[in-house]
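Page header: ASSEMBLY MODEL / two components / 294 residues total.
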Amino acid sequence: MSNFLKKINLNLIILLLLLSQFIIFFFNSSTERATFNYRSDSLEKFTTMILGEKGVDVITADKMIKIKDDKTLLIGNTSLKNNEYEISSKNVTVDSQNKITSSSHKTQTINDQGTLKSEGFEYDQNKDIIKFKGESEFYSNEN
Amino acid sequence: MRIKISLIFFLLLNYSVSFAESYIKASNGITWDKNNMTYSAEGDVEFQNDEIKAYANKIKAFYNIENEKEVFEIVNLDTDVKIYYNDEIFSSNSATYNKLSSLITLYGDVSIVSPKRYLSGDELIVDLQNNTRTLKTIEEDSLAEAFIKDE
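Prediction written out in full:
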């Protein structure tokens, strides 16, 4: 048995295992966060902070277009972040009259419980319910 | 030499921990209700945690936060339910999985399939902790089954 083990290069096995675990860690990291650009000197790189009932909401987008008084389009990569979750998507519509924020583009949501990926979302601020549309998967940090 | 072998075992153990995940997958969307602490999923839904793997057309999972991590405590499954537990497959119209009490209760057109048996009835209670199965059939005597572990 010991002769057999001597033949195996244990250092190489350990190195390979460590390397593969580093790869798994970096590709599956659930604590990944999007990078924010806080340049808010133009509508091209839009950032706003809203003080709500549950803390501060930070909204960033590549471009902001106000269609009506109560309807805003956030064009390009958009992020909605507060102390409970962060939703990252594209081309988000904000309906401030009905308090509904939505997108029909691929969405990733990271909260304290895990990561949820979907084909879109609709956040009803009145009910505090987020509907993730289409093919969706939620991976929990339970284990 | 022993240290190196121990390190290899530790790293291999770490793999199993890395891949043991809880998840919900749904073809027709997932709804997160923060106030009621639930996730509801529709379509072809798949649920997995460290105990079971389940399929249904609708799932509502109630969670709680323990040590800053979410734990799915109760999962209600509806329509075309299939639950996989070790080498057993439980099928029914609806079911409730309670992680806290280690119970799975299945209702309507219930069946148990395993390599050595097939049983069917109207209601099935699976006690994961005590390893018992209680199958009820309307207007007939109930069948209770207990698995005895060699220890």
